[in-house]
Specification:
The protein is an all-beta fold. The chain has one domain. An 8-stranded antiparallel β-barrel has the order 1-2-3-4-5-6-7-8. The termini are close together.
Length: 98
């Protein structure tokens, strides 16, 4: 798995940082979302005010460690990007997964 983003958490519960791949370098903001149902995302992911994805709060089965399961998508992407927003020393990392 490869790290494709670095984020910091803000006082309002949002995360700000940069997502960088071979074809993509963007500033992104993960903002808390109002949940309409149990399956609604916990985070909305924005780039320049445009929503490009969502994140759902999860817990690892083995350790119970919390993370966000993230799906990024945009018409310019050849396919959706799936990743996990996890706690790391000094902040948060967006880890790509297939």
């Amino acid at each position: 798995m490869a790290q494709i983003g670095t984020f910091t958490r803000n006082d309002d519960g949002s995360y700000t940082g940069i997502i960088k791949t071979l074809t993509l370098t963007i500033k992104a903001r993960f903002v808390p979302a109002e949940k309409d149902s149990e399956k609604s995302p916990d985070l909305r992911i924005l780039c320049n005010g445009t929503e490009i994805g969502a994140g759902w709060r999860k817990a690892a089965k083995d350790t119970g460690r919390e993370y966000h399961s993230v799906k990024l998508d945009d018409p310019s992407f050849p396919a959706p990007i799936f990743a996990s927003l996890v706690t790391v020393d000094g902040g948060y990392a967006l880890i790509w997964s297939r």
